[in-house]
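Q: Hi! First time doing this. I have a protein sequence and I read that you can turn it into a structure. Is that right? Here it is:
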Amino acid sequence: MPRFAANLTMMYTEHAFLDRFAAAAKDGFKAVEFLFPYDFAAADIKARLDEHGLTQALFNAPPGDWAAGERGIASLPGREDEFARALDKALDYTAVLGNKTLHVMAGLITPEQSREKHRAVYLKSLERAANAARAAGITIVIEPINTRDIPGFFLNRQDDAQAICEEIGAPNLKVQFDCYHCQIVEGDLAVKLRRDMRRPNAGIGHIQIAGVPERHEPDLGELNYPYLFDLIDSLGYEGWIGCEYRPKAATSDGLGWIKSYLQRA
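A: Yes, that's right. Below is the predicted 3D structure, encoded as structure tokens:
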């Protein structure tokens, strides 16, 4: 049965961040994820997780200057030392929060920049990340993101992401399969889930969902999520499914789609 994690960056924004943990637990969630924890002490977040019986499913490594528009630094030439420091910081947080999956964002590329050079840097960064995370039992995930939401993002397609993981060959490097991004870029989600779930030296390490195209609740839009949830179950996926969507109104009011799953859990 699917296990869902509330994304506290997008959901429950009617509450202050540290109060979102209680709101998610009250609605029946057993896990949470978010983009970045770094504005808060890890111990303060851990206290909220423990108080409300929540598991930390995922967060992202530091992405560079987010406020200035950066969306990751793993593929950026000349930022290798900064990436190494960012990775260390992220792993320090995982040691406290307890999540076993860490997302590393690739970053942006402009048309005049060399894709080959960015890819070479990206592979070295990911190899470094996988090696550093392995001893702690952490899986590094990379996510293809559509260029409508993030123009110029380096990684856009599932097959490209799987090829990168296979080329590096680290057992703890996998792909974050975001159904929203995949539907916008490629479609054919069911075929790709079947193709990639158990790929050798790659595979799917985390799944996220949202309605397409507005990125509201999963029951709004063009995707048949009950079918996809049954498929994901049948493929043996045991990880969390992150609810990375923007509620159309108050978060709790839009949870009709998930109530039956939470009650069964």
